[in-house]
Amino acid sequence: MNKPLSPEQVQALRVIHAKGIVRGRDLKRFASIKTNKELKETLETLSRNQFVTLQSGSSFLESEDAALNAYVVQLPSGAAAVEAELKRAE
Amino acid sequence: MIEFSPDWDSRYGYLLVFLGALVSARFQVYKRLEVLKGKQIYAWSLYRTWLVFGIYLALPLLLFWLLDRTGSIHDTSLFSAVLVSLAYPAILAGGTSLKPAGGILAVFDWLNQAADGLVKRTAESVAVEERIFRRSILTAMTADTLRHDAVLDVARLHAEAPDAMDREMAETTTVQERAEIAYDYATSSAYGLRPLDAVTSKWQPAVALSPYRRTRRWVAVYLAGSVVLLALIYALVFIHYPSDYAIWRLFKPGTGHQDLHRSVALLESACLAQDPGQFEIESALVRALQRPGIELARTDEAFRLLLLRRGASAQTPSNPVPGLLIDSLRARSVDVRSRAQNTLLMLAHEQPPVVGSVGTNSFEDLKAWKPLSADSTTEIESRIRKWERFWNLQR
Hints:
Helices cover 49% and strands 10% of the residues of chain A. By secondary structure, chain A is mainly alpha-helical. In chain A, helix 1 crosses helix 4.
């Protein structure tokens, strides 16, 4: 079973849920994510939990700075799970 | 409720389904792209989205046709057309009393999966295209202060945290970085690219092809395609081949009384118009009579139509109806053969006696023949020869 999301990760998920496709740097601006390392970990966790999909072919996992340019979006099939997660975190 | 529906021409039914599907397909695709929020425009600028939209558009038409074929609805029912065009997802999900065949449900499952694929592809596409668009806007901003300020105004107006933007701006020194920050804030609101596009689309020369402009192209392609398709269908079904359509409706199994009446009325007026197409209509009727499994009510209507010009020109040698009726003796249905035989006898009795015609015995033989289901092909062909000889002598 996946670990529960941290408050920062929930906030990042909320930003994606509200804005649609976002860039890594948007998440860093609008969620309480301080460093690129934290951003990379957040993206990895959200993707692993199948809440979001990341632009395929992206090399964002290879470097922390590259995570700033990654594009992230929810999947229609995961919308219900995201809403449930956000409700649970309220 | 469907039973109480007004009954109208099925052509209008299909048109209504198509128009309803235009609204419904848009709603369906929007619903599936909802996760993109204000960035949906990126998806609409991709051909894949329009492909899925096209499938959603075709699906109600296919379902309407299929439900009519399976007898669940009539394609002449106004309420059925409205129901199928607007509520087809519920029908496909099994949420109504109308049950489509299993195969079409698989198409719907595929569409749901396709929506996920569409969003993934959109993310990939955005990654490439947004970078190109962003780069061209940034180039224009760094080269022109007015453009830079225009984007900054958009960012100030739409940014959720203008203070944060100002703080970031204060920390940077280069024009390029300031332009990047302004662009990012201008495009990160819930409205996505729309506010920025409203400003940059007026720039001359155009800096980049925005997804809005690409989408407008697709809308134009779809509108033009729809108009051409509708015009083509109208020209074929309403202008060039209305009689073929009416004959198809006349013999279509499971149609209602109103529809049968409409088809017969259309064919009657075509037959009575005495135009050159009359023979084609009569030939098509006889060909249709050869089909197996035709309801008797429709057979009778077809024979009535074949006899329409009997009053006007049955006596003339050029009347092709007897020859066509002889052909219909080859029909698989014994009921059709019996009706053809009786009609031929009636026409024969109306002819003035011809000296030296088929021998009395031979005609008596024809009169005595009652088509049976057990009739062999040779038996039928032999009667056909006799009828042909009889009518050849009448000419």
